[in-house]
Amino acid sequence: MSTFEFPPSIRSRPVYCVLEARPGKAHLMIADAEGAEALIDLALRAPELMAKAHVIYIPKATDFGAALNALNPAQYYEGPSYSAAVSRIKRVFSDASMGLQIYLSGTEGLMGQALSEAMQAGYDHTAIQTEHRGSLARRMQCVHCKGITEDVSNDPFQCSHCGLNLFVRDHYSRRLAAFQGVCIDAEEPGNVPPSKELYS
Amino acid sequence: MTGTAPNSTAPKTVGAAKLAVRVSAITTLNALVTRFEFQRIDGADFPTFSGGAHTVVEMMDGEKKRLNPYSLMSDPAELSTYAISVRRDDQGRGGSLFMHQKIKVGDEMALSYPVNLFVLDLRARKHLFVAGGIGITPFLAQIKQLEAIGGNWELHYSCRSPDLGSYVDELTEYYPHATSVYYDDKKQLIDLDNLLDGQPFGTHLYVCGPKGMIDWVRKTATATGWPQAHVHHEEFFAPQPGRPFAVRLKKSELTVEVGAQESLLEAIERLGVDAPYLCRGGACGQCETDVLDSDGTFLHRDHWLEDDEKESGEKIMPCVSRFEGKILVLNR
Ligand code: FES
Question: Which of A34, A134, B143, B226 has its CA 20 to 30 A from that of B219?
Answer without folding.
Answer: B143
